[in-house]
Design goal:
- The chain is an alpha/beta fold and about 950 residues long.
- Helices cover about 35% and strands about 20% of the residues.
- The protein is built from 27 helices and 38 strands.
- Helix 11 runs parallel beside helix 12, helix 15 packs across helix 19 and helix 17 packs across helix 18.
- The radius of gyration is 33 Å and the shape is flat.
């Protein structure tokens, strides 16, 4: 607790868990008066050299005055943060606000001196970089805009921490000291540096879980059966290459081995290091096991135990305590209630899961939150991967259970630069942080395909994360924008994964179809049309076709410049020239190998042998004599999963499908993904407009919020704010009486429109609440009387008069700030198309010129904008510019939390904004611009 002289309460929101460079975790929190003993103990463990670098002189111990100074803070002008592991300090940082003379000063002084001290044993782990991000965020919150640091020239490590951070800085040298000054506002480079560090740290944290050098199974039963004993057997039978230990506190003291594996009563009793602990004890005993693991230096945990958030409020609190306890020791957790993890790499061969068999090695990464779905995915890939495409199996598999700590985002970070994974498949019941997931997905998809089945589940139980308010369909659309291949079922997930794992991406939508069945060819042709592909006329080879006929036809199709992909259809045939399965598979493989730049798919009906033959055609099946020997310490009889022999360089294994629709749907997803990859290479730019008054808009927004106008703006304020960004609205003048309506029309000039704007009548021209092309005062008064007779008194229907706009297509433009996903720009046609059919397209803000172009073409009713059925095309260039201006407005000013322009009438030349509303509020927090932090518990 802080003393009475301190000006602010303890800022608990500054506490955070962070992942360090080596994949371990640390807790960052403010230093308080209760930390005096921790500070002294920490300082005693720092080398004399590090102390010299910190204080510029020999400084063997802290005086009582020093301890008081470094533990008493007001959390405004003087702030200290500590990084802790196991409750003990491993590093500290502090700032002191200073004035222009370099002396201590209160606000409004906006500069502070900053200094670090990192324990020598923890240097090189990225602790100082993480502390700098957090102390900078704290300083910005307290009105500090610049940091100054004085560093000895020989202290290269600390100079590098500052210079590598990416902030705009100035360096000087005087009196033998390097002085660094830098602004604290995030820059494009500082954000890029932060995200690169985040990726490396989170990837390493997952890598430590998937490639441990030693594993202890905590909770191994003495009798066969049970979760712990099963996992131990799975690890042993998979041929795990590291050291394996069985742990159970109920083991007899004289028990030395269990099934040939060293047995111990506690993790503390293990002589060597333990990298990973698989915890399979009852939930009430897990915390004790975690403590033992933490004290022994275990790096990570896979918690299979159930009884946590899935079981109700008591379980949620138990789960929070589990995560807090593990992170206190620097450990990350997969689970609880997890199915486990698998790594098929020959160097690891880890099956720390409940899967009784090791999956076939391959190039596909699998992530599933649900254990049941994980089992289904492994089963299907094992069946299809072996029977269809040879070694197209699994590289790594993670089933996260309750995902209390490690989530799909972390696994994406690992897969991004994992050389053993070519395709990532994910089953997500929910997306806890859509903004971050979309960012990571976009970067991953630019390097390798990412296929996702997204369930409609809620946020993970026990997480203190902001939930998205966006509809499920909108989130799906944003994922597609980020390059995610979004499918609906796990069958489609596997179908797409098998194609993408071993075939090149198509360069276009043109599809050649050939085979020995005219009917199956026509089915494939129709399926292509349904999926938006451009099929060529099917080539019927007849049921008499030989393997050589298939080879020749496939070779010709692949050489045809008017074709981007080939679908081969095959049915059983009887006759002297009919090929056997192995012969046909080899014919197809050899033809495809000669033109490896185009994808080839096979649709086979009741040809189970063909699928097997397609896998055997590349000779990838493992040979018994090449199976690796069991590692030392693994008993005889253990059967390590053999490593698959990789096919020759450039060989593409051919996926086969039991139905034309499934093959074509997978191909269509590959076509769309390939197009996204090409477009992502040139995403366009956010244009600048000379007439945008960003500063004036900021002043207007600040004034409105200062006066308490934090809700929906009035008409005048809305028009003024939009006008600062070059968005002109046609003014609607209230007309509470016929006389005032006549005066408004005279001021605007005839013809005019008379509208009822009550909420139940707004944007409902179909109800008759709008009168257009009112030519004179007589017609205006008559229309006014009609509206009041139909719908009620003027004060009930709220009539307005507005100048007529040129005829065109009515559209709607919206922007909203979602607390989890960020700013989203939406577009559609006004009326039933968007309201009833949900025909809206969405893009994340800021929108580029290319994205604005694609946005208006993404809705199903887009042909109405481009001259459908002989109508005059409208001015889509003006519409694109409007979208870009709205995007700029909400991107430049996060206080603008919602904008609606409806209707926007797009004419053949120009457009008219007839209705507009703007909502202001204090800007929501931006997690993606703040310091790195793990989800809060």
């Amino acid at each position: 607790m802080q003393s009475a002289s301190d000006r602010h309460e303890y800022p608990a929101h500054w506490e955070a868990d962070v992942v360090l460079r080596d994949g371990g975790t640390a807790r960052i929190r403010p230093i308080t008066v209760d930390d005096a003993e921790r500070l002294v103990s920490f300082y005693e463990q720092v080398s004399d050299e590090s102390k010299y670098y910190r204080f510029f002189a020999p400084y063997p111990r802290l005086s009582d005055k020093d301890v008081h100074r470094f533990t008493h803070h007001d959390f405004v002008d003087r702030v200290g943060l500590a990084a802790t592991v196991g409750g003990e300090f491993i590093a500290t940082v502090r700032y002191d606000r200073i004035g222009p003379d370099g002396m201590a000063a209160p606000a409004p002084a906006d500069e502070a001196e900053v200094a670090f001290l990192v324990q020598d044993a923890h240097q090189g782990r990225g602790v100082a970089s993480a502390l700098l991000e957090h102390i900078a965020a704290v300083a910005r919150e307290r009105g500090i805009r610049r940091f100054a640091a004085e560093v000895l020239p020989a202290n290269n490590k600390m100079i590098k921490v500052f210079t590598d951070a990416g902030y705009t800085q100035k360096r000087s040298f005087e009196d033998g000291v390097v002085r660094l000054e830098f602004g604290l506002e995030p820059t494009e480079r500082s954000v890029a540096v932060q995200r690169a560090r985040e990726q490396r740290a989170e990837a390493h944290s997952v890598g430590r879980l998937l490639a441990p050098g030693s594993v202890a199974v905590v909770g191994t039963g003495r009798s066969p059966g049970g979760v712990g004993r099963s996992v131990l057997g799975n690890l042993r039978d998979a041929g795990f290459t590291g050291r394996l230990y069985a742990v159970n506190k109920a083991f007899p003291e004289d028990l030395g081995e269990l099934d040939g594996v060293p047995a111990h009563r506690s993790v503390r009793d293990i002589a060597g290091p333990v990298d990973l602990a698989v915890v399979a004890v009852p939930a009430e005993q897990v915390l004790e096991a975690v403590t033992e693991c933490g004290e022994h230096g275990v790096q990570g945990l896979v918690v299979l135990s159930a009884g946590y958030a899935e079981s109700g409020p008591e379980g949620r609190e138990r789960q929070r305590e589990l995560v807090r306890h593990a992170r206190a020791y620097g450990m990350r957790i997969i689970g609880p209630n997890a199915f486990g993890v698998i790594n098929t790499s020959p160097e690891v061969r880890l099956n720390a899961s409940l899967a009784p068999e090791m999956p076939r090695p391959g190039r596909i990464g699998l992530f599933a939150q649900s254990g049941a779905i994980g089992i289904a995915l492994l089963s299907r890939l094992h069946r299809r991967g072996g029977g269809v495409t040879g070694v197209t199996g699994v590289s790594t598999f993670v089933s996260s259970g309750n995902r209390a700590d490690v989530s799909g985002n972390d696994v994406l970070q690992y897969w991004y630069d994992d050389p053993d994974t070519d395709v990532a498949l994910m089953y997500l019941e929910s997306i806890g942080n859509p903004r971050k997931f979309t960012r990571l997905a976009r970067r991953t998809a630019a390097a390798k395909p990412l296929v996702v089945v997204q369930g409609a589940g809620s946020a993970p139980q026990g997480h203190a994360v902001r939930a998205t308010r966006l509809p499920h369909a909108t989130v799906s659309a944003l994922l597609r924008q980020a390059g995610v291949i979004r499918v609906d079922t796990i069958t489609e997930l596997v179908d797409a994964g098998l194609l993408l794992a071993r075939q090149p991406l198509p360069t276009g939508p043109r599809v050649a179809i050939l085979g020995n069945s005219e009917s199956l060819g026509l089915l494939t042709y129709d399926a292509c049309l349904s999926e938006g592909l451009r099929p060529l006329s099917p080539l019927d080879l007849t049921t008499e076709a030989s393997a050589q006929d298939f080879h020749a036809a496939l070779a010709r199709a692949l050489a045809d410049e008017t074709c981007d992909a080939v679908v081969v259809t095959a049915i059983p045939a009887i006759g002297e020239r009919s090929p056997g399965d192995a012969e046909l598979a080899e014919a197809l493989r050899s033809a495809a190998a000669a033109a490896a730049a185009k994808p080839v798919l096979v649709v086979h009906v009741e040809l189970g042998g063909l699928a097997m033959a397609l896998s055997a055609a590349t000779s990838t099946a493992p040979r018994a004599e090449t199976a690796p020997h069991a590692p030392a310490g693994v008993p005889e009889g253990a059967r390590p999963a053999p490593a698959a022999v990789e096919p020759p360089e450039g060989t593409h294994l051919i996926p086969a499908y039991p139905a034309a629709e499934r093959a074509v749907r997978a191909l269509a997803e590959a076509v769309k993904y390939a197009q996204w990859r090409r477009e992502a290479a040139d995403a366009g730019k956010v244009p600048e407009y000379e007439d945008i008054d960003e500063k004036g808009a900021a002043e207007l927004i600040g004034g409105l919020l200062a006066r308490g106008q934090g809700l929906t703006l009035g008409t005048d304020a809305t028009c003024e704010l939009l006008g600062r960004y070059g968005i002109r609205t046609r003014r609607a003048i209230p007309a509470p009486t016929p006389d005032e309506a006549a005066r408004a029309a005279a001021a605007l000039g005839y013809p005019v429109a008379l509208k009822a704007t009550a909420p139940h009548l707004r944007h409902r021209a179909d109800l008759g609440g709008v009168r257009l092309d009112v030519a004179d005062e007589e017609q205006l008064r008559r229309s006014y009387t009609e509206l009041t007779e139909l719908f009620g008194k003027p004060e009930e229907i709220r009539p307005v008069v507005q100048a007529m706009a040129p005829r065109g297509v009515d559209t709607v433009v919206r922007a909203v700030i979602d607390p989890a996903a960020g700013a989203v720009l939406s577009f559609g046609l006004a009326g039933a198309a968007s309201q009833l059919l949900g025909d809206m397209a969405h893009r994340l803000v800021p929108v580029t010129d290319r994205e604005a172009t694609s946005l208006i073409r993404s809705i199903r009713t887009a042909p109405l904008l481009f001259g459908w059925r002989g109508s005059t095309p409208v001015d889509t260039a003006a519409l694109e510019e409007l979208l870009l201006r709205v995007s700029r407005l909400v991107d430049d000013h996060p206080e603008v939390v919602a904008v609606t322009l409806e209707p926007v009438v797009v004419a053949p030349h120009g457009l008219s904004v007839l209705g507009a509303s703007v909502r202001l509020a204090p800007p929501p927090a931006r997690d993606d611009l703040g310091p790195r932090t793990l989800p809060t518990y």
